[in-house]
Amino acid sequence: MKLIRVALMILFLTGVACAARTATPSVASETEQPKNASVTVRVLGLEVESGQIAVALYDSAQSFKDRTGAVASGKTDPQDGAATWTVESIDPGIYAVAAYHDLNENDQLDRSTLGAPTEPYGFSNDARGRFGPPKFEKAAIEIGPGSMTIEITLR
């Protein structure tokens, strides 16, 4: 069971890495309403300041589970034991955030020979899954109009 849990976590965090590497910003059409929400993700628990922090923002249980279709994703540098990443101009709604510390900047979550993650990772609400990543509902946060800040502690 533990091996299955580790394998599921690896698949999930690999998707976060892919989303951070491949996401491109979308251009709003002239008929869309202005997006009036923003979120700042403050990542804590960084033991070293090398590497980068990969972060992805998801707006549905399916995209969070499949690690596809992130609303926004990117990387940021650690500084003073933390890292900050901001997404502006998004629709208010329910989202979940996943992050990991890419210590060697190879754009992937590194693993041990048994498949366990060797780089720190975390989710919004500091959610944890029992056998793999948490469910969207556990990591879900509500982002209303305006700006808000959340914190994720890496483990």
Q: Can you walk me through this structure?
A:
It is a single chain. The chain is of the alpha+beta class. The protein has one domain: Immunoglobulin-like (Sandwich). Helix content is 20%, strand content 34%. It has three helices and eight strands. Strands 2, 3, 5, 6 and 7 form a five-stranded antiparallel β-sheet that branches. A three-stranded mixed β-sheet has the order 4-1-8, with no helix packed on it. The radius of gyration is 15 Å and the shape is globular. 32% of the residues are buried. The model is unreliable at 22-29 (pLDDT under 50).
Key structural traits:
Immunoglobulin-like, alpha+beta, three-stranded mixed beta sheet, 155 residues
Annotate the secondary structure layout.
Layout: H1 2-22, E1 37-44, E2 52-58, H2 61-66, E3 72-76, E4 83-90, E5 93-102, E6 121-123, H3 136-139, E7 141-143, E8 146-153
Parallel strand pairs: 1-8
Antiparallel strand pairs: 1-4, 2-3, 2-5, 5-6, 5-7
